[in-house]
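Notes on consecutive records. When two proteins share a document, each keeps its own sequence and its own token line. Never mix them. Below: protein one.
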Amino acid sequence: MSKAGVAKTQEFRKPRKRKKVTLEERVIDGEVVVGKECTKCGEWKPLDGGFGTDTRGVGGKTSACRLCKREVSSNWYIENKERKLDSHRKWREENKEYYRKYYEENKGKVAGITRKWRQHNPEKYVLTRHRRSARKKALPSDFTIEHVEKVLTHFRNRCVLTDSTDFHWDHVIPISIGHGGTVYGNMIPLRGDLNESKGDKNIFDWFKTNRQRFELSYEKFNFLIEWLAFVNGKTVQEYRDYVYWCHENPRTLENLETESEVMS
């Protein structure tokens, strides 16, 4: 190839310039929040909760946001899910006796590791517990870590009604009435005392009764309901009607199992 040809090829392959990412302040709910654009999806997101830690990145955060990072990992998992599961099942089957014997001989050690994991992964532990509860009720239980991060990013890592950073995960439609489940669109971060007060009550009735007691904001409540309606593919009125219908038509575990058998 001629020198001219080489030069032309090199010019053609010249890498495009990347947009310079800078920190940007925005006012959200009356507070100044520092954030930046994700280099993958292009959306502005707050540094706190929107990005992972990377000391080399702008603002000490990764260039791609948490959701985009999770999407890459999720796509790889989906593409390799069956292969990984088959490999894991095969290993467990071939080492069943070893696994049982190891557990019997190291109960204390295993319990210690489990406690340590719970302490360092509180969100994952709570998520696992909620999903197990939903499965016991024969309800959907596919609320993932990706969903957790999506919800927390939307509500800025705070309680949906008070902005408190100390919260529990609440089932908007309680699984005790046989509806909802541990799923995206039914799980919200709610301050501990509010979560305990709400319990298995209808969220609309509960808010009306306890708004003044807890000094809650209509604006935040409406913002929450609009989001819940949107992610559930309903209008606000349709979502409200659905919540009331669920509470007026509770289902038992026996009902759910019967419905499952009919559908299968």
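Protein two starts on the next line and is unrelated to protein one.
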Amino acid sequence: IVLYILHKSMFRSSSRWNLSGMTALVTGGTRGIGHAVVEELAELGATVYTCSRNEEALNKCLQEWSVKGLKVNGCVCDVSSTPQRVKLIENVSSAFHGKLNILINNAGTNIRKPTINYTAEEYAHLFGTNFESGYHICQLAHPLLKASEVGSIVFISSVAGLVHLSTSSIYAATKGAMNQLTRDLACEWAKDNIRVNGVAPWYIKTSSVEYVIFLNPAYQFHTITKRISENWRSH
């Protein structure tokens, strides 16, 4: 879905599935959805920059991508930190000579518990990681996206931002805010030739949610196919 949005917004049909010469930033690209998006963009010819707060995981992924011949670079960054977000975009600007075609705001986290049990610190951490990070990175990256003359932003949201779930109310609120930000930026930045879209998946079988699916097998019955989506790249 992410790649379809990018191609539909950036290319005519004759050049679809070719990102040669394009640059991309994917936050949280060392596992799950982010990892799959990094690989897909790079295999389609884009030069990709990614980040992770886990240096060991980042170095391992960068080495694997290098062996595959993919053009991927990255740095350690905790997107919940304002100074680290600033440094991330400085690195991206330097790597891509002040221009950026694609921004995938993917990094996110969740703390599952009843609403009355959240602490102020947990609330701040969820909003800082899931919402504020994407908002601020968009602000910082706007000059780079505008300079490319063909810019596209994709927010990785969640079904939780659209419907009621029994837990994770703060997570759901961050995704709801993200969805509204997506709409507003799409209108505000269209004049700069920057398209803004969001993708809101249901549960996908990744390392971060496998235990949740195991404990709540009924989640699979909320989908038309009665199964949880999987990362085809893992097979």
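For the record: The domain at 2-201 is CATH 3.40.50.720 (Rossmann fold).
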